Amino acid sequence: MARKPARADTANEPFPARSPGRAKVELEFEDQSLLGPLFGQFDANLVQVENRLGVFIAARGNRIQIEGTDDAVARARDVLTSMYDRLATGQDLDAGAVESLIMMSNEPTLEGIITGTADAPPVMIRTRRKTIVPRSAGQIPYMRQLAANDIIFALGPAGTGKTYLAVAQAVSQLITGSVQRLILSRPAVEAGEKLGFLPGDMKEKVDPYLRPLYDALYDCMPPEQVERHIASGVIEVAPIAFMRGRTLADSFIILDEAQNTTREQMKMFLTRFGQNSRMVVCGDPRQVDIPGGDRMSGLADAVEKLEGVEGIAVSRFTAADVVRHPIVGRIVEAYEGPAE
Hints:
- This protein is α/β, with parallel strands linked by helices.
- It is built from 13 helices and 11 strands.
- The strands form 3 sheets. A 6-stranded parallel sheet has the order 8-7-9-10-6-11, sandwiched between helices.
- The relative contact order is 0.12.
C-alpha cells in the first residue's frame, strides 16, 4: 500500500468515512510534543506501519485513525501505542525500532512486555546511555533469563542481539553494584582467513578479535568511562586462553563466538564461575571456524550436556529474530535454511 510521504495536518476536518467490511479504531495521544518523532520525518513511521501491516492511517492533530482488517488494525494500534510509550519513557525511535515493534506485534503480550503489568515488570535494561527493550520475540525470554539465571547459553545467527544484550545487562549490573567487574572474552580464531602475526603488545593483538564487544560497551557507556574502567581493571577484555587457573567471583562474564571453543576450552571456561557471578555464553553453532574441521565445538557439547541443569538457561534465536536491516534475516535464511 503506497502512501504520500507527508500530509497536511487538518485537525478540524472529519476522518474519512468507514469503508464497508473493514475495521476502524481511533487513538488519541496526550503529549503533542511527541507527535513529531512518533510520526517521523515526512510521516515516515506512519508510512512504515501502513506498508508493513496493510492498513490506512489518517492523522488529525493528536488523533490517529487506523482502518483495515480486524487483525491488521489491532496490530497497528498496539504498534503505535508502543511507539508512543517508548518516546514517553525517553527511548529512541528509529526505523529499526519501528520494524522490531511491528515484528513483535504478533505477540499477545506486546503491550505488557513494553509497559509492564500487575504481575510482571517491563522487560528492559537500563544503562548510562539508553534504556533497551526487546526488539524481537526471541529477545523477550532471553532478557528475562539474563536477569534471573546464573549461566545463559545464547545460540543463533549474527544480528539477533545475543552479545549486545549480554553486554547491556552486564553494564546495568555494574552500574547498580550487583557485580564488581565485567569480563569479556572470546577465542582468538579467524573466521576463515589467516591474518598472520599481528604487531603490538598483547592488548593490541587481541583487540581486533574483541571489537564487537567494545562496540557494545561504547553504546551503553560513555567512552571515557569505558576507558577508565578498562585502565583500572573493572572491565577486562581478554582471550579465553587467559582464563585458565582463575576463579571469577563478583563478575559478569561474557564469552562471545563460543562456537569456536574446543570442548576442553569450554569446560575450562565454565568452571571459572565464582560466587555472586553471572556468565553468558554466546555463539552460532552453524558458524564453526575451529582449525582442523574435525573437532566438536565446545558450545554444542556444553549445551548437550548442560541443558536442563538448574541455574542454566538456553536461549535459541532464529533468522526471524535478526534486528539489523530486514534483509540480513533473509540472507541468513537463504544461506542456512529455516531453523530446525
